[in-house]
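Supplementary Text 2. Reproducibility record for the structural model of the 205-residue chain.

All settings were left at their defaults, and a single model was retained for analysis rather than an ensemble. We include the record here because the model underlies the residue-level annotations in Supplementary Table 4.
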Amino acid sequence: MTRIIGGLAGGARLHVPVRGTRPTAERVREAMFSALDARSLCDGARVLDLFAGSGALGLEAASRGAESVVLVERDRGAAKVAQRNAETVAKAGATRALVEQVTARQFLQRSGKHFDLVFIDPPYALAHDELSATLADLAPLLTHPAMVVVEQSKRAGALDLPGDLELERSRDYGDTTLHYLATTGTAADAGHADAGPADFGHAEP
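Retained model, structure tokens:
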């Protein structure tokens, strides 16, 4: 079991799939959302949680005021757990997350939605080129500005980023590294006028 840390559903217990997922440690989630909340990046955001597992990252954002949340998880059992957790968080008054049981790239290639805040916490075994392809598929769906948080093993090395994204900063927590990526350019460059929930700037949390 894990729990929602803050917001409307703070303290709510979440179920974790019995196999095949690696939940983000609570101290890492706490640091991540402290940084995001310092810039009001959850409030009113359209959130996407890829490789969602239990859905803890997307549901934490829902608890903290996200406008909409999509949890993408290919494993049937994990997707059922994420759905159960989404219902728990919604009962506390947060937005009800939508669970999509497909692969991350299948979702990205067919989705016409745009997102302000994206969490990517892939299995450590995911090939480097597959993660690079996922980021390339994601880039056209991002608003300007938007934030993408990638969680990786500290040993994974540098990310291969599409031109639409740039590394704003990285933070290490034990064996885990969080990469904070920001969109480049402007809404006009992207061909649509979606606006994210806040000006990201480059301030440290």
